[in-house]
Amino acid sequence: MKYHLFIVACFFNSFLYSQTKQNTDSVFYYNKLVDNNLNSKKFYKAVFYTKKSIDFCESNHKEENLANQTFKLGKIYYNQKNYDEALKNFHKSVSLFDNVKPTCTKVLALHYIGVTNTAKGNYETADIYYKKAEKLLKELKIVDSAEVLRYQKAMALKTSRNLPLAAKYFRQITQKQDHPSIIKTKTNSYYQLGLIETQLRRNDSAIIYFDSALDYNEKTSNLAQKSKIILAISQYYKQNKNFDLAYSYLDEHYQIENYLLKLKNAKLDLNEFEKFKKNQSLNNTLKRESEEKIQLKTYRYSKLVSILAIALISILSLLSLALYKNNIIRNQNNLLLREKNKELILAKNKAEKASKARSEFLSTVSHELRTPLNAINGITHLLLEDNPKKTQLKYLESLKFSGNYLTTFINEILEINKIDSTKVEIENICFNLKELLFNIQTSLKELATANKNYFNLDIDEAIPDHLIGDPTKISQIILNLINNALKFTQNGNVNVIAKLYAIAEENATVYFEIVDTGIGIPEDKLQTVFESFSQGSIEVNRKYGGTGLGLTIVKKLIELLGGEIKLKSEVGKGSTFTFKLNFKINQEPLEIVEETKSYNDKQLKHKSILLIEDNKINQMITRKMLENKVITCEIIDNGEDAIELLKVKRFDMILMDVHLPGINGTTATKLIREFDQTTPIIALTAISLDENRDMLLSFGMNDVITKPFVPDEFYSTIARFFD
């Protein structure tokens, strides 16, 4: 038999028993005093009366009550984070239960020993007692259908900052089938997962969990829980600098809190009224005596009161007239203000819709271009590997260059859209800025030589070796600026300067300057050169090429990192870009990371791979690339047929296109994982603005390959999953 209210039943078993008479020396009496003091947050008194109850049980040989009351004392100490005293009483309670018939309270005592040890960081000890609690639960034939024990275990792990393991147990709860008894626990689990993802700075996953928590909350109509979730969503949008949405959710949070406060006050008023009715009979006698005295005084001063009343009425009439006029004026002003607010809100909504439409359009176009571009790059790669004629080689190299150029262009569009939609996350990791700049100089030497430029790097030795920041975004900024300088300069100089601007105990400010002697920028273009698709002139665009997106990305990334870029330029003399960035100083040395080994063709030979892809050209290209490495490839063009095949046939790997007809790749992966947990599944996607690696991995995929893919990276990713 299932007990859907497991925890409630246990507590009723623990605390509401034995005596019906409210004696001053009984378990019922002491429990009532303990509960009142706990509600009033007088914990020292609650401990005192619980110990009194324990003494009473010992004196009267009430063994089961003694075990229950000892557990209750441990629970009070646990809630006060006095873990040593809590463990002492939980162990004592378990030993007392050994002398009586085991109950669900003994299960709770064993479980709380595990929870307390988890909070102290003793995970191995905790696991022993969790297993004991689960074993006893099965012996008692009680099913924790509400998953409360697993949720408490996860919360204890979260409290001890073991976030990955806590997240694992929360996810186990969310994967349970929906049932009225588990809805509240699933809601809280999604909420806790959102908080963990926010703490780990995985913002995209965090908002998915918060939205799921909100959806489940709608099934329970729990306003206090909803208020808590909405506040977390508001804080998420605030961290991501989407202040309009943050304010909107915060306003809804306060509305719910105000409503709950009104309900609480109404309940308090009703209690006061009941007290008043009880004391009314006593007050009637006093009232009568008071009324007689008042009548005597009223009679004596009636004439004086009448005169004062007439004067007061006259004054109030004048005040009422003045207030009436003021009220009319105020209402008129309020109407005007409401109309203006409506106009502002409409204008704001239109601007937001336009911005969203622009981002979605660019994201959709960029995404749709990736599929045919994957075909161009893939076929070019296959033709280059197929020993082409020398006369064809030149054309194929040009085709490869054009494909790579288009790929870079699409990536730049997506990068700008991500920044505009606040979906770019900032890393804070330790790196060596000097080595980063030297590596960039080395990678661009060939471009400098091609334009016959002198490329110089001037780095201040005073810059600390170990800084904390985002090296990927800093590389993007420096590479874009140097690329521009080298591209628009011929037979000239390009200097990159990095100087220590200021230093404190834990912080350093570095000044960057990129100077070239190139064609320069006209004065009337200095303000617009940072705008998307903007360049100096049509002639410059035709002669030097480029998309006009590089400086837009640079400006947005520098602002994202808390800096500001400045530009000085003169036509024919060159340009100077300057900016400052703040870094934290890491006092510990950098860890040496070994380079990952490249793949070996032997790892790939004779492997069997299922390709789930609906595009015929991509099917042909991917099959050919796999067969070139002696890999057996079977193709299915939809998710439904793939699921049915995988139920009867095994493969070494599955390559899953995300966008499929019928059910999409993420849904198909989720269904496959219900019966196959081991076969590696790798996503093939022309990734868009709304997709990210963490989101795809959350559905059960092992890795992600982005279209159009680079052949060596494609083979390396596959090889990692073959021993």
Please give a structural write-up.
The chain is an alpha/beta fold. The chain has helices spanning 6-15, 27-39, 43-59, 63-79, 83-97, 104-120, 123-139, 148-159, 163-174, 183-199, 203-220, 223-239, 243-385, 390-420, 433-443, 445-450, 471-487, 538-544, 550-560, 601-604, 616-627, 639-646, 665-672, 693-697, 711-719; strands spanning 429-431, 454-459, 467-469, 493-503, 507-516, 566-570, 574-585, 608-612, 632-636, 653-657, 681-685, 703-706. Strands 1, 2, 3, 4, 5, 6 and 7 form a 7-stranded mixed β-sheet that branches. A 5-stranded parallel β-sheet has the order 9-8-10-11-12. α8 packs antiparallel against α9 (163-174) and α10 (183-199) packs antiparallel against α11.
Largest β-sheet summary: 7 strands, mixed
Class inferred from helices and paired strands: alpha/beta
Anisotropy-based shape: extended
Segments where pLDDT lies below 50 for 5+ residues?
1-9, 14-22, 541-545
Rounded average pLDDT: 79
- Distinct helical segment count: 25
Quaternary structure of the protein: single chain
Q: What integer value in Å does the Rg equal?
A: 36 Å
Helix content: 55-70%
Distance between the termini: 47 Å
Beta-strand percentage range: 5-15%
How many distinct beta strands?
12
Attribute tags:
single chain, 723 residues, alpha/beta, 7-stranded mixed β-sheet, 5-stranded parallel β-sheet
Secondary-structure map with pairings?
Blueprint: H1 6-15, H2 27-39, H3 43-59, H4 63-79, H5 83-97, H6 104-120, H7 123-139, H8 148-159, H9 163-174, H10 183-199, H11 203-220, H12 223-239, H13 243-385, H14 390-420, E1 429-431, H15 433-443, H16 445-450, E2 454-459, E3 467-469, H17 471-487, E4 493-503, E5 507-516, H18 538-544, H19 550-560, E6 566-570, E7 574-585, H20 601-604, E8 608-612, H21 616-627, E9 632-636, H22 639-646, E10 653-657, H23 665-672, E11 681-685, H24 693-697, E12 703-706, H25 711-719
Parallel strand pairs: 2-4, 8-9, 8-10, 10-11, 11-12
Antiparallel strand pairs: 1-3, 3-7, 4-5, 5-7, 6-7
